[in-house]
Amino acid sequence: MKELAPDFAPYRWAATTDEVAALAGMDASQVVRFDQNTPSMPLPTTRPGTVAGALARVSGYPGGSYRQLVRAIADYTAVEPENVVLGAGADDLILLCARAFAGTGDSVAIPPAPTYPLFRIATQLAGAEVGDAEPVVTFACRPNNPTGLLDPLPDARPLVVDEAYFEYGGETAVPLLDDGVIVLRTFSKAFALAGARIGYALADAETAAELNARQAPAPVSGLSVALALAALADPPDVAPTLEERERLASALRALGLDPLPSQANFLYVPVDDGVALGDSLLRAGLVVRAYPSAIRVSVLDPEDDDLLVETLARTLDRVAPVAPAGGRRVRHLRATAETRFAVRLALDGASRVRVATGAGIYDHFLEQLAFHAGLDLVLEGAGDTETGNHHTAEDAALALGEALDRALGDRRGIARYGDAVVPMDDALARAAVDLGGRAHAELRLQLEPGMAAHMLSSLAQASRMAIHVEATGRDAHHVAEAAFKAVGRALRVAVRTEGAGVPSTKGIV
């Protein structure tokens, strides 16, 4: 093989989730990754049904033109199809540009450290050297990874600009395509398709043709194409991430840290010893990118970001500016051909509840149950609501029940039994629950909007809980809501800790 540069270092991944779990002494589902700069959940369009057609044709090659996706990318970026080059993520396109422009004896200019390491790797794999003296090509990173800064564009040409985080920063070099500039983008970040490995380059027509000629045949999979097309048809709204980025930055400043201003979906936080701090967080099950004098943390959502802030405060021996996470916590993912739900549940919570499945009134019912049970709950995901709410509502209840079962563990020390009465306007509901490990549901709802009883039955099944409910009234919504509230109030009593023993004369539940 051709020898590599003496200082060549391949790309290094952080520890795997299983490795972190073993180090932290926890289940792998409890590990939270702040190191990938990707959303914690796929977009609603990322579902098995999205790739069903491509999967049916997976035995054949996808073909080399990808006309539909190229057209969709051209429309999204306001260029022409002949300006588009596809690749297996921005990384593949960085490598493509390096080998297209550079070779043995050439110099390639890359951004000053700290920056994305693949620019150096690609240069050395092409046989060239990193240097600013008469470079044959120059790489820029905007926003820069890991700092999140929008540094000025270099004047050098040809110039390759990595815009992996464009959707968050909003500034682009696309207007400069006819001035020797190539723009690289990815579906890995804002579009939440990192696992699909798909991205694109934009260049003037002649340069794009040359890059396509040097690209591998069929460089992306048909499954990835289907996912990207669906994502482009309904692009994500990054505004919530930007708002959460500023909230997280404020919380970090309250800890006495000073994150750099960021135009991306992550924060670069200078610290005295980033490697040591990263190791400490790793042992708590939180993965960040660690540098000698900083850590880089992805912006996730308020619940996970607060967990990071709370853990940082404990590690640094400072007062946390956020409310503590609830006890007896569990994270759970339920995925079927029809639905996908992620659950974060704390039995010893403070009624901090967020349910977002798209099932309308049934989300509301689950919120009421969790709120009145005193749980902390985040239940989010997507289902095939275009066919109705049945699968989504049912699987949401099953996902919550499975998480509840996992959080209860061997059920040692719990009260086990609980009951409650809830009057609600014209409705009256009585509920009793038994967390003894046997699933059963006796449900008498005088009126209900369609899926309420089935959801309670599914919850009982998945959580291995016996539920008895009687609800009467003149309005279906009120009858069902009162029933869910009553089950929640009964659960509040049943899950409380009363000792250390198994709540059964049999010695097992």
| Number of continuous helical runs | 15
Give a count of the beta strands, DSSP E runs of length 2 or more.
20
Uncertain runs: none
Distance between the termini: 62 Å
- How much of the sequence lies in strands comes to 15-25%
Would you give an account of this structure?
By secondary structure, this protein is α/β, with parallel strands linked by helices. Helices cover 34% and strands 21% of the residues. The protein has 15 helices and 20 strands. It has helices at residues 17-24, 52-56, 67-77, 89-101, 118-125, 166-169, 205-214, 222-233, 239-254, 274-282, 302-316, 361-373, 390-408, 452-463, 476-494, and strands at 32-33, 84-87, 107-109, 129-130, 137-141, 159-162, 181-186, 199-202, 266-270, 286-287, 289-291, 294-298, 327-335, 339-348, 353-356, 376-383, 417-424, 427-434, 440-445, 466-472. Helix 5 (118-125) links the parallel strand 3 (107-109) and strand 4. Helix 3 (67-77) packs parallel to helix 8, helix 9 (239-254) runs parallel beside helix 11 (302-316) and helix 13 (390-408) runs parallel beside helix 14 (452-463). The N and C termini lie far apart (62 Å). The model has no long low-confidence stretch (mean pLDDT 96).
